[in-house]
């Protein structure tokens, strides 16, 4: 094997965010930008010689270029084998499963998740460790430090590797195995869920629509829902992955899936609607006449998980990110199991899952998952919902309302101010932080503040500490305001304001969410002066 060492100069901006390094495609297209980052990852790892690396992506624009570079750099650095999905495709949860199933050293996930694709869109690279989950901060910090001083990378000189045909080939002494991206994942789902019961549900006339948003879950959803579970052909829409996601925005929320939402609100529409994002780890769940918020979905899935064979023994515990509503906490309390509050980002669940302390995790940002992999998993959430619907023989709306009648309802919303000037956003947060120590005990907008802090996470498994994870202001009536800056944006800063209030089991569960949270929305504005500082008259997105 002839390894070439190529001189390079560092880029100052290769700091991994909440979920890997996400940048505009044009940024990634700069000379050696991909090479620097991948070499910096390998330089921050030890002991991978001769071991297996998994590589796959969501099929977005530039996936094909970056994947060839990645394979060459892996060969030059001494990996023994690369496992890659056919056509360069692997959904994020499937990549996590492949890493675990084949006991690989780690994996590279090429994705910018739900961000738009195409030449004007975003690209991303994320490194996952041997448990199948995103690298912890210890590694991502080391990678960033390395990117700042890197002066060379290693590669090999080969023609492009054929990723279209399943099978094994040798690239400069390293084995490259192209695998079916769907097979192992489908088998894993079959081991967790009662496929016979779900098949029976479809056979009885239950109708669903699943929007793959022209992204990576198309082949997975078609194979599992239509081929294995007998859902009628056409259940999966936008099922062919395209590099530009059909020029759409593959984020499964009520803005980009409005048509589906409208369809589910009609009398003769389907019974159930679902969607996943660009790389297949997020989910949207809509029942007939009922959108299920991600925070509620986490609570409902945790409360009903035992109805699926994979969780029939019950769950060990639940974890949620700090800004996610506390609906799941009430389920944990009732079940008498552990409940954990972590910073935003799936990587923080890894230790708890590995230690067996939690089984189900979720985030307000449309992510839910379990200990079956170490990523959130869109289709998993859809299948668990289907399993629950099949066993309970009730509709989504009925199940949600029953849940609120026994646990109460956490009214919850998130207001995003996107592409705000970064300096303005940072100043706003800094000014708020200064005020926090004096806030407890005072009254704002008629509500008394119980606590006000900037969330610090103490990982109970490895003792690591993550500070400055978001400003939280809790009130004596149990309601809460959280403000933080997004770690996944690629332009300017995105300010997220999370608002929540609890309505007891015997209270009113049919209020409009924005109305129910109006007093809190006003307090948030009073405290942070968001509109005057950002010059915006309101949030860019409300979820
Ligand atoms: C990605 C991560 C999630 C995170 C979400 C929002 O999807 O995988 O763990 O919750 O981004 O992060 P942000 O920092 O933009 O709020
Ligand atoms: Zn995603």
UniProtKB/TrEMBL annotation:
<dbReference type="Pfam" id="PF02880">
    <property type="entry name" value="PGM_PMM_III"/>
</dbReference>
<dbReference type="InterPro" id="IPR005846">
    <property type="entry name" value="A-D-PHexomutase_a/b/a-III"/>
</dbReference>
<keyword id="KW-0597">Phosphoprotein</keyword>
<dbReference type="InterPro" id="IPR005845">
    <property type="entry name" value="A-D-PHexomutase_a/b/a-II"/>
</dbReference>
<dbReference type="GO" id="GO:0000287">
    <property type="term" value="F:magnesium ion binding"/>
</dbReference>
<feature type="domain" description="Alpha-D-phosphohexomutase alpha/beta/alpha">
    <location>
        <begin position="295"/>
        <end position="407"/>
    </location>
</feature>
<keyword id="KW-0413">Isomerase</keyword>
<protein>
    <recommendedName>
        <fullName>phosphoglucomutase (alpha-D-glucose-1,6-bisphosphate-dependent)</fullName>
        <ecNumber>5.4.2.2</ecNumber>
    </recommendedName>
</protein>
<feature type="domain" description="Alpha-D-phosphohexomutase alpha/beta/alpha">
    <location>
        <begin position="14"/>
        <end position="153"/>
    </location>
</feature>
<dbReference type="Pfam" id="PF24947">
    <property type="entry name" value="PGM1_C_vert_fung"/>
</dbReference>
<dbReference type="GO" id="GO:0005829">
    <property type="term" value="C:cytosol"/>
</dbReference>
<dbReference type="InterPro" id="IPR016066">
    <property type="entry name" value="A-D-PHexomutase_CS"/>
</dbReference>
<dbReference type="Pfam" id="PF02878">
    <property type="entry name" value="PGM_PMM_I"/>
</dbReference>
<dbReference type="GO" id="GO:0004614">
    <property type="term" value="F:phosphoglucomutase activity"/>
</dbReference>
<keyword id="KW-0460">Magnesium</keyword>
<dbReference type="InterPro" id="IPR016055">
    <property type="entry name" value="A-D-PHexomutase_a/b/a-I/II/III"/>
</dbReference>
<dbReference type="InterPro" id="IPR036900">
    <property type="entry name" value="A-D-PHexomutase_C_sf"/>
</dbReference>
<dbReference type="GO" id="GO:0005975">
    <property type="term" value="P:carbohydrate metabolic process"/>
</dbReference>
<dbReference type="InterPro" id="IPR005844">
    <property type="entry name" value="A-D-PHexomutase_a/b/a-I"/>
</dbReference>
<feature type="domain" description="Alpha-D-phosphohexomutase alpha/beta/alpha">
    <location>
        <begin position="184"/>
        <end position="286"/>
    </location>
</feature>
<comment type="similarity">
    <text>Belongs to the phosphohexose mutase family.</text>
</comment>
<dbReference type="Pfam" id="PF02879">
    <property type="entry name" value="PGM_PMM_II"/>
</dbReference>
<dbReference type="InterPro" id="IPR005841">
    <property type="entry name" value="Alpha-D-phosphohexomutase_SF"/>
</dbReference>
<keyword id="KW-0479">Metal-binding</keyword>
<dbReference type="InterPro" id="IPR045244">
    <property type="entry name" value="PGM"/>
</dbReference>
């Amino acid at each position: 094997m002839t390894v070439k060492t190529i001189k390079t100069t560092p880029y100052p901006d290769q700091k991994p965010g909440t979920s890997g390094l996400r940048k505009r495609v044009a940024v990634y297209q700069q000379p050696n930008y991909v090479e620097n980052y991948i070499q910096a990852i390998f330089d921050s790892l030890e002991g991978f010689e001769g071991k297996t690396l998994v590589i796959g992506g969501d099929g977005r624009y530039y996936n094909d270029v970056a994947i060839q570079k990645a394979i060459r750099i892996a060969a030059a650095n001494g990996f023994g084998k690369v496992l890659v999905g056919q056509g360069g495709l692997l959904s994020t949860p499937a990549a996590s499963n492949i890493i675990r199933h084949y006991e690989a050293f780690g994996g590279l996930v090429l994705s910018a998740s739900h961000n738009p694709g195409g030449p004007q869109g975003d690209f991303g690279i994320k490194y996952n460790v041997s448990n199948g989950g995103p690298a912890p901060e210890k590694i991502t910090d080391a990678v960033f430090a390395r990117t700042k001083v890197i002066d060379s990378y290693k590669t090999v000189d080969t023609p492009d590797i054929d990723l279209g045909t399943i099978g094994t080939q040798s690239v400069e002494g390293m084995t490259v195995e192209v695998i079916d991206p769907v097979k192992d994942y489908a088998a894993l789902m079959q081991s967790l869920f009662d496929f016979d019961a779900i098949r029976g549900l479809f056979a009885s006339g239950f109708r669903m629509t699943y929007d793959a948003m022209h992204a990576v879950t198309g082949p997975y959803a078609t194979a599992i829902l239509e081929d294995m579970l007998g859902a009628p052909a056409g259940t999966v829409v936008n099922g062919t992955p395209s590099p530009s996601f059909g020029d759409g925005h593959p984020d499964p929320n009520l803005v980009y899936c409005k048509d589906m939402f409208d369809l589910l609100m009609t009398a003769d529409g389907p019974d159930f609607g679902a969607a996943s994002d660009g790389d297949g780890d997020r989910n949207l769940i809509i029942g007939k006449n009922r959108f299920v918020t991600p925070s509620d979905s986490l609570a409902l899935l945790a409360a009903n998980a035992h109805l699926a064979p994979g969780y029939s023994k019950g769950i060990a515990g639940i974890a949620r990110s700090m800004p996610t509503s506390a609906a799941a906490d009430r389920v944990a309390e009732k079940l008498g199991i552990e409940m954990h509050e972590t910073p935003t980002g799936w990587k923080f669940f890894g230790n708890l899952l590995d230690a067996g302390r939690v089984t189900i995790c979720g985030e307000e940002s449309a992510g839910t998952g379990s200990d079956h992999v170490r990523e959130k998993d869109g289709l998993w959430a859809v299948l668990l919902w289907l399993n629950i619907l099949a066993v309970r023989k009730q509709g989504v709306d009925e199940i949600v309302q029953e849940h609120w009648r026994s646990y109460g309802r956490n009214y919850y919303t998130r207001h995003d101010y996107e592409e705000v000037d970064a300096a303005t956003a940072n100043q706003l947060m800094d000014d708020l932080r200064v005020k926090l120590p004096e806030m407890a005990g005072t009254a704002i907008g008629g509500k008394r503040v119980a606590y006000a802090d900037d969330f610090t996470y103490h990982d109970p498994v490895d003792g690591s500490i993550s500070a400055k994870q978001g400003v939280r202001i809790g009130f004596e009536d149990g309601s809460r305001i959280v403000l933080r800056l997004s770690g996944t944006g690629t332009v300017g800063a995105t300010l997220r304001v999370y608002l929540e209030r609890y309505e007891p089991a015997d209270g009113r569960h049919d209020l409009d969410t924005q109305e129910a949270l109006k007093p809190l929305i006003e307090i948030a504005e009073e405290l942070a002066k968001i509109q005057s500082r950002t010059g915006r008259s309101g949030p860019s997105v409300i979820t």
